[in-house]
From TrEMBL:
PROSITE patterns (alphabetical): ADH_SHORT
InterPro entries reported in the protein's UniProt record: NAD(P)-bd_dom_sf (IPR036291), Sc_DH/Rdtase_CS (IPR020904), SDR_fam (IPR002347)
Gene3D superfamilies assigned: NAD(P)-binding Rossmann-like Domain
Entry's family note: Belongs to the short-chain dehydrogenases/reductases (SDR) family.
Alphabetical keyword list: Oxidoreductase
GO molecular function, one term: oxidoreductase activity
UniProt protein name: Uncharacterized protein
Pfam families recorded: adh_short
Length: 115
């Protein structure tokens, strides 16, 4: 994008755990890796701005999404979850903004998910 001098958009899929620590024993390193994604995204945003490019950087941070990563069973039986299509919709929203608008962060959670 920089070499061709074109506007672009980079979307990082992060997690709510990249912004707030939750003490889930089975997800200990997952949260740490998502905090790293948050820091990397901010660094990238600063770098492209300092280079004078027209590249937008957006981070999408969902709560629990119904995927193969979420185990079946009683533990998550009553847990509100997003669907993959919800995250795709957030990506399309960010990509659909006017050229002068940069959506930095979208935190998306299902209604009723714990804080």
């Amino acid at each position: 994008m920089k070499r061709r001098q074109v506007a672009g958009h980079i979307v990082n899929i992060n997690s709510i755990l990249g912004h707030k620590y939750h003490g889930f024993p089975s997800l200990n390193i997952y949260g740490a890796s998502k905090h790293a994604v948050t820091a990397i995204t901010e660094t990238l945003r600063n770098d492209v701005r300092n280079e004078g490019t027209r590249v937008k950087i957006t981070s999408i941070s969902p709560g629990v999404v119904r995927t193969e990563m979420v185990p079946d069973g009683d533990l998550f039986e009553d847990t509100p979850m997003l669907e993959a299509e919800d995250i795709a919709g957030a990506v399309l929203y960010a990509l659909g903004t006017p050229a002068h608008v940069q959506v930095h962060e979208i935190i998306i959670k299902p209604v009723g998910e714990m804080a």
